[in-house]
Amino acid sequence: MNTNSQVWQGAGRRIYIQEVGTRDGLQAEAAFVPTEDKIALVNALSDTGLAKIEVTSFVSPKAIPALRDAEQVLSQIRRVPGVVYTALVPNVRGAERAVESKADELNLVMSASESHNLSNLRMTREQSFAGLTEVLKAVQGANVAINVSLSCAFGCPMEGDVPMTVVLEWCRRFVEELGAGGVTLCDTTGMAYPTQVAELVRAFRQRWSSHELTLHFHNTRGMGLANVLAALDAGADRLDASLGGIGGCPYAPGASGNVCTEEVVHALILMGYDTGIDLPQLLAAARALPALIGHDVPSQILKAGRRLDLHPNLTDFDEIAARAVNR
Ligand code: COA
Ligand code: ZN
Predict the structure, then answer these.
(1) Which of 96, 4, 90, 16 is nearest to 52 (CA)?
(2) Which ligand gives the minimal distance to the CA of 107?
(3) Ligand 1 pocket by C-beta < 6 Å: which residues?
(4) Residues 319-327, mean pLDDT to the nearest whole number
(5) CATH of the domain at 90
(6) If you measure from the C-alpha of residue 60 to the centroid of ligand 1, how many angstroms do you get, rounded to a whole number?
(7) Which ligand is nearest to the CA of 66?
(8) What does the pLDDT look like over 196-233, one tens digit per residue?
(9) How many domains does the chain have?
(10) Using CA atoms, how far apart are residues 97 and 144, in angstroms rounded to an integer?
(11) What band does 2 get if pLDDT is binned at 50, 70 and 90?
């Protein structure tokens, strides 16, 4: 555990950044991004040093029409060694499609809240868990990693607080009963706050120290980056983030964008963390995003530039300076 002197210090610690813009981001877009543009975007992201890219989701095309080209995208991208290409999967049908398209990892999904699970997946949580068990059986021997994303782990927009005991019990079932290699705690609608995040991360880490733990925050209430720092300080080393800060679950009222990848990376590099990411290259990919989706994105770094992207002095600066010195 960190001592006070280590708080907020990166000190070269490796943090794994996982891009979800092409899934969590594009799923929420009204306009369909052409398949070849999605492929080009993933290819550009692959060269930035990201640890993992959630390329798409294999859900019902009626539920998420924006990602109805999942097969084409996942099977046509250029694979960079070392990058894990994952896809969101809600059921056996989705798992079969994802394995066929050579996903490295299946990101299974269910919600910690009964109401959100019903509205997003049209099942009770127990039905979802039984479904995930079926998925595990169906892909046995397929050599594909399994992660489970638990939506609404920090609160539900319909039910309010979700007790930590409930969240940890679902994590236990994913890890111990399903045998998942990783769990993602999702703040689907930006209800998490830093002290709560720290408590949950510590509790998870105390129980399961060798499993991958990912934190997935949305910046809906402006606490995204604060939550990121609280999570890292409590021992987390994996973060989901989305390029430009786009994103949001269409089946969660009030959902909005994820924490923004370039903002998170910019902050972590300044603090001395090792993200493995080439920020200028990431920014170049982010700059292409508004044209792709047809609107502005929340990213502050795209607007303001990096901290030391300096501005030229006023044209009459020398005159002003000379007058001030002689005053
Ligand atoms: N891939 C493609 N099609 C699928 C599918 C999958 N993984 N799962 C279901 N379908 C199709 C079925 O074939 C059926 O099609 P039809 O109407 O042409 O016969 C239709 O979707 C409904 O299938 P059903 O099994 O009755 O599921 P449902 O209506 O209860 O929907 C989900 C359940 C989970 C499949 C659906 O709600 C879904 O995909 N949700 C996505 C949620 C999501 O991505 N949210 C944001 C991210 S968290
Ligand atoms: Zn999300």
Answers:
(1) 16
(2) 1
(3) 27, 57-64, 90-91, 93-94, 97, 109, 120-122, 151, 249, 251
(4) 94
(5) 3.20.20.70
(6) 4
(7) 1
(8) 999 999 999 999 999 999 999 999 999 999 999 999 99
(9) 1
(10) 13
(11) very low
